[in-house]
Known about the structure:
mainly alpha
Amino acid sequence: MEVKINREIRQYTESMFFGLSMRQFFFSLMAIGVAVGLYFLLKLYVGMETVSWMCILGAVPFAAMGFINYHGMTAEQFVWAWLKSEILEPRQLKFESINLYYELLKEKLAAKEKEVYKTHDEIDPKRPEDGQGEVQDS
């Protein structure tokens, strides 16, 4: 006797009806119900081929809700997360780089810069001021 065990235990789903989980079975019944309802509702107004396409298009969302999983979320959880992130709470992300090293040393750099400017502003006795006189060589 051989027993199959999933490699990933979190992906285990219990089969209830026809090899489907309860969720898949429920949404499959809903898809069939929608398709049959659309058939009887539209067969008097449009042709058979159009009715068949309408039934398919009407049933697909319900069937997909039972079978789709994306990043561990069911289809309705994914749709809600997408609506919330894209429509209900849209925001524009703005990138501003922060140089942490510069922020920490800003005061010391400013003090050093002032010191450098002070030394340049002092008058050198050998240097002529405003073009007056010439520098004498010794």
